[in-house]
Hints:
Blueprint lengths: L1 H18 L3 H8 L3 H15 L1 H31 L2
Helix pairs in contact: 1-3, 1-4, 2-3, 3-4
Amino acid sequence: MKGNIEERACQLALYIIENKATVRAAAQKFGISKSTVHKDLSERLPAFNKPLYEQVKGVLDENKAERHIRGGIATRKKYKGD
């Protein structure tokens, strides 16, 4: 089981880095919860692959900084019907 968790964490990190994906998008792609994605990337990944963690952390921090913009765009689409 532990090997599978480590492998899943690496796959999640690579997916997020390659696609500049959000935690929500990664969770949907892998069929797991957002909480699991977050736990895999923030707690489990640094324990065994620090360089990969640093890369994925950069993407996640960028997503966090831009989330208010995405929310505004989603609200506009909802009310304008785009």
